[in-house]
Amino acid sequence: MQSLNHFIHTALQKKSRLLSNYTRELYKIVPSNFTGQCSVCDISSFAITISAPSSAIANQLRYYRNDITEHFSLYLNRPITQISLRISPKVAVSKEKSTKNPCISPNAAKQIHSLAETVGNDSLKQSLQKLAKRQSSHDER
């Protein structure tokens, strides 16, 4: 079985390593609460682009603009004059298995069942009764 590195182009691997190194350099400048929160996603001839998960963190990074440009100018041995901040929210992955027929709370089931008793349309009544049976097993809080 071939390793994953075999399938990834070497130029992409090199760029990934460089960006990881630049991100580690960024963490040397900013306070520890930014560690793992933001990363360097690009460096051009005169600018650095930093990705942050929220506008609040991006705004806080602006206070370190001078420190970041000075540090990276020395580190890269060329003038870095601009910082670009990009907001890239982290997507939370749901660990719950989605179900085809979602459950409803016991209170909602009671209300739907009582509504079904007052409805004159038979097909709607059956649908509401079927929906009321999807009661969750958890107690309502």
Number of helices: 6
Class computed from helices, strands and strand pairing: alpha+beta
Q: How much helix, percentage-wise, in residues?
A: 40-55%
Shape: elongated
Number of strands: 3
Number of domains: 2
Average pLDDT metric = 84
- The value of Rg in angstroms is 27 Å
* Name given to the CATH homologous superfamily of the largest domain: DnaA, N-terminal domain
Strand content: 5-15%
CATH topology of the largest domain: GMP Synthetase, Chain A, domain 3
Low-pLDDT residue spans: none
In CATH terms, what is the architecture of the largest domain?
A: 2-Layer Sandwich
Write the layout of secondary structure elements.
Elements: H1 4-7, H2 10-29, E1 39-43, E2 47-52, H3 55-62, H4 65-76, E3 82-87, H5 106-118, H6 122-132
Parallel strand pairs: 2-3
Antiparallel strand pairs: 1-2
Helix pairs in contact: 5-6
